[in-house]
Amino acid sequence: MDRKVVIPGDLLSEDIKKSGEGTYVKNEKVYSLLYGLANYRDKINVIPLAGKYVPAPGDNVIGVVKDITFSNWIVDINSPYDGLLHISEFPKRIESDEMSNYLRIGSSIMTRVKDVDSTMKVELTLSDRKLGLIKTGRIIEISHTRVPRLIGKGGSMISMLKKELNCNIFVGQNGRSWINGSSEDMDLALKTVLLIEKEAHTNGLTDRIVEYLKKEKGAKS
Amino acid sequence: MEECNDNISFFKEGLRLDSRRPDELRPIKIEAGVLARADGSCYIEMGGNKVIAAVYGPREVHPRHLQEVTRAIVRYRYNMASFSVEERKRPGPDRRSHEISKVSREALEPVILTSYFPRSVIDVFVEVLQADAGTRTAGINAASVALADAGIPMKSMISACAAGKVGDTLVLDPMKEEDNFGQADMPVAMTPNGDITLLQMDGRFTKDEFSQALEMAMKGCREIYELQRKCLIGKYAQLETEPFLEVQVCD
After folding, report:
1. How far apart are CA A95 and CA B251, in angstroms?
2. CB contact (8 A) between residue B120 and residue A81
3. Are B119 and B68 in contact, with CB atoms under 8 Å apart?
4. Which letter does DSSP use for residue B119 in this model?
5. What is the pLDDT of residues A92-135, one digit of tens each?
6. How many Cβ atoms are within 10 Å of A62's Cβ, its own excluded?
7. Residue A50 and residue B237: Cβ atoms within 8 Å?
8. What class is the B12-241 domain?
């Protein structure tokens, strides 16, 4: 894989068909929009090294309830824009005055972005078996730009982690991940996730993490 | 601007008082990502100028009435520390810093893709710790690197540099003495491909001098662009070779 650090305004290609994410086209040429890593494949994508999470429909995210209104929970999703979880999106039919019996201010939830409109009103939903209130486990927050590496190509990294660590892991696109398992397993899982965040821009990461886990486990037994 | 004082000589054997050639920049040092709390930051030294820039956002707009439905707003605050100049500067915003904040914001706004973040704000704070003429250009250079460091989408970087006239000679990047007793000072900010986003002039140039000075300033901007670029790319290279330095934050 061919990768290179680029800064905003760098010329990436003269073929406008190669314009991917994080790029723009001017005068039939492709330039970078971001400071990040340019990936040269069929299309050129620039992966940012920093930045805020902007919600997109279909994203799984982990949020914290920060307010309750007449028919909505207002959820902090680690983004410039708050999420709105409408009462009708709760899996059970509940009344407005009993909303705080189910999700209180400070409750952490696994949720999904249902829709985002042009004014960035973010609608969330809980209508899936794997979504809902977080009761046990731990939440770790990393930069959302590192999430693709935590998941790996086709989910390779995350499925390896789940297997090797004996943990249940839910990765939110907003950079928050939920980890559930025995307390020693979670300790190692947290360390591993932080290591992935730190080395997200390097090549051959999954293999190195496998090595790392082997060593850590060897040290324990 | 003061009239040229004939008692002062700005040149010694063809070189300037700090032994620079007329078309030479002062030494520049740029460092990105110096602040742990800010989303993006940059520290720059341009000769005697020491400036730090911090970028926060995109984030929610407070007060709410300033927010725009279709795009992000950009706020730029230029501030000089009371100890940044020889005689203590009265702290707080004044006429001069208001003006500089406005023109600097307008120098950066054209390259920022504000439409990506409706109803939000991108805050840029520029603090001058030590001033030695040309703080607004140093501030813009730092802010541009800090914006890139914050991961904000931009069409290109912005570089800024001043040209001036002292003792009837055009000079690049005037220092304090040349600024105070010179005949003209002209800060310029531009994109690497030459689109000018800021052009101010204080004092007098003839038409020819103006085009020459502009050419000179643009050449300076290109040199600064290379340094900005080196700084940003170098930050990543350092991450790759050295073990990551943990930033300790006291809570």
Report:
1. 40
2. yes
3. yes
4. T
5. 999 999 999 999 999 999 999 999 999 999 999 999 989 999 99
6. 24
7. no
8. alpha beta
Alpha helix positions (H), chain B: 95-108, 135-149, 176-181, 207-241
Per CB-CB distance under 8 Å, the chain B contacts of A198 are: 244
User: Which of A4, A7, A197 to substitute to test the interface with B, most B CBs within 10 Å?
Assistant: A7
Show me where the domains of chain B are located.
12-241
- Residues in chain A with CB shorter than 8 Å from the CB of B68 are none
The token duo for A164 is: 């090797």
What distance in Å separates residue B46's CA from the closest CA in chain A?
A: 21
In this complex, which of A5, A9, A36 lies closest to B156 when CB atoms are compared? Answer: A9
In this structure, what DSSP letter does residue A194 have?
H
- Yes or no: say if A131 and A110 are a contact pair by the CB < 8 Å rule: yes
Percentage of chain A exceeding pLDDT 70: 99
Of A221, A212, A172, whose CA–CA distance to A189 is shortest?
A212
Per-residue confidence at B242, pLDDT binned at 50, 70, 90? very low
CB contact under 8 Å between B39 and A9, yes or no, is no
Q: Check CB contact under 8 Å for B236 and A201.
A: yes
Per the prediction, chain B carries an average pLDDT of 92
**Token pair 């999420």: residue:** A83
Return mean pLDDT, chain A: 92
pLDDT level of residue B245 (50, 70, 90 thresholds): very low
Report all structural domains of chain A as residue ranges with CATH numbers, in order of start.
Answer: 2-48 (2.40.50.100), 60-133 (2.40.50.140), 138-220 (3.30.1370.10)
ipTM value for the complex: 0.89
- Residues of B with a Cβ under 8 Å from any A Cβ are 39-40, 57-60, 69-70, 111, 113, 116-120, 148-157, 191-193, 228-229, 232-233, 236-237, 239-240, 244
Q: Is A31's CB within 8 Å of B148's CB?
A: no
CB pair distance less than 8 Å for A52 and B39: yes
A150-176 residue pLDDT tens = 998 889 999 999 998 999 999 999 999
Question: Which of the four pLDDT bands, split at 50, 70 and 90, describes residue B244?
Answer: very low
Three-class SS of B155-218? CCCCEEEEEEEECCEEEECCCHHHHHHCCEEEEEEECCCCCEEEECCEECCCHHHHHHHHHHHH
Q: What residue of B is the nearest CA neighbor of A10?
A: B156
pLDDT on residue A111: 96
